[in-house]
């Protein structure tokens, strides 16, 4: 469907909504295609493409919000009728749709005309063969994924925007079962510029497999603990995302609700959202609001929260949207969500590998078992270590098993011993360093 036709379709929906009594309306059209090259247990499994598209309508009638969605973008009457009917029982409208112009010529990322299928299959096969040299029983899954997406926004104030994005992903997962011992190692990278090279990914997996050759029983006690970028994202970033979320602030359930401008964490720590970089880059959100770079935590100080239209308008005092109103899917409601994020340390520090060299006895936490958090809103975490290692005299000596780690980020991150100078892109949308925390209790294997 040509862009002009798409725009005309959205205009028809807006106009029909107004003809049915809507004071305001906005419509979002989402198109999505995926071309995977998947391997499973060392064999090529899936080359089947997948395409989806749909429309989501949100309107305000009699000061009530009504929503509807459909994968049939030609079913204008049905979409409008469903939203009008939903508005009768919908929540009160505490905001207006935006009237501020946005950049609609945004984010046309690099894209290829034709998927190099044979080349990628050969590259995936070679990667698997290389990893299998570690152990003949090693099972490898993963491959390459090409996702193209387009989002078009239009509202009754004639605010129009379009986002186009192509995301290239490369990732592999290796697992080895030895009796009751299950070892799994995963690594991946994503980019807007082309498929990330698999060499760096499989080299990192191979390195972790080698570190895991020997299992070491860990004594329960306090250790200096290095959280790799994976672990920092899984524990700390996930909790930051909750306690800084405008909805938690609006509902007054975040422990940071009265902490704006206060020093809460170590001065080394800065947590930044930057919608101009990474695979989640976006010039506007799904409510047509311009996104903006923001220092959520700056040198340990709570500097900003992030809001969508609803959470901002319901706060006391009222807050404006920070351009963070996104939908998790076609039928999902808007909610405050982050784009690309990074953790920054302005102080001079060691690299991740040098941090290891300086530890006489310690622990590396890399992968965690599930979410594991017991009370996220209080900043608490308690989780099993799925992949972790023991450090002895500056070297990784082996893998630790059946261990647990727990704590509260408001205590743990008040005194960060080091934040590594090097960072790692995770999922193409999070630029994360490693953390070194002293004197953390790690519960060892019974």
Question: What's the multimeric state?
Answer: single chain
Reported for the largest beta sheet, the result is:
8 strands, mixed
Categorize the overall geometry: globular
Q: Show unreliable segments.
A: none
Radius of gyration: 24 Å
The average pLDDT value, as a whole number, equals: 93
Number of domains: 2
What is the terminal-to-terminal distance? 62 Å
Tell how many strands the DSSP assignment holds. Answer: 22
Tell me the number of helical segments per DSSP (H or I, 4 or more residues long): 9
Structural class: alpha+beta
What portion of residues belong to β-strands? 35-45%
Instruction: Name the helicity range.
Output: 10-25%
